[in-house]
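Quick one: structure tokens for this chain, please?
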Amino acid sequence: MDIEEDRKVLADLYRNMLKEPSLELRELGERTSLDPDACREATDLLREVGLLTDAGPGRLATVSTEKALARLALQAEESADMWLADTVRLRKAIRLLCTELADQYHDQRSLAPAELIIGMDRISEVLEDSSEIAVNEVLSMQPGPVIESRTPDRINRNERVIKRGVAMRTIHLASTSRIPHGLRYLRELQAIGAEIRLAHTIPFRLIVVDDVMAFTPAPGNEDQAAALVTRGPLITHLLRRVFEHCWHSATPLDSMHPDSGREQAPPLDTQQFTVLQMLNAGLKDEAIARELGVSIRTLRRITADLMDKLNATSRFQAGVRAHELGWLDHSAGTTAKSPSEM
């Protein structure tokens, strides 16, 4: 039974009790055409809203509507007071956290301006945390290839950020858009609300979050990726200026790749194109194999097939031929030793 839907039944029961307070539950049910269970449920609801009260063992007494209304109003005031007190406590807690965050991000004496992050797991964890705290804008420059197996997770993470109202701008190498899975990723990123531009040259990998945190590549050893995390406005404002310079020099995705799709992708499969970009970035076989999740032997087979397609007898010659054919763009950054793209 519902107070709103069955209010006429409840009102009829209440009126019968007002007229004849001595009526038993069975008799009330007969008067109102309710079975014993429904009648018991109805009296419980009337007691809940304050129109009935206990008057001894097995007995109920009616309460005037004026008194019941006054009691409900008092309950509403008490609930409002409790809600207001909770809101005040919550507001104070938020102000405390905001003050602490402001001190951390803007007072260089209370927080080290830079931190070296070692290992892809730790880098991914810090990137995930930074995406959760983003409020206004995330900027990124991505000089490395797009690894197809990682794109669904990246799209999902970026979509969560954008849905919170955070703006996102990113610059990719033009060569990323020349392979099917790369262009598909950029289109998906664009579809969820990110602004995308393409450049033939990107100086290094960069991610800037709200002008308070930035990620840049850091020198690492041969076995582990490394990233430099900088906090505070002094360095992040400078890095933002670098991004804005590259952004204004880059070409919007739709301008370089209209729907007519006049540009043709190089005759390489996804794996070969990724290997070509990594070789161009100067990565060693071990780092490339680790990034692709293949063995050294498999990587060397892929490289040999790639050189056959380029009609090259050395990796240097393969790089020269790839540039002559326009299959690659220039990047000063590396892939395996820099944070994953956001």
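The chain has two domains: 7-63, 112-342.
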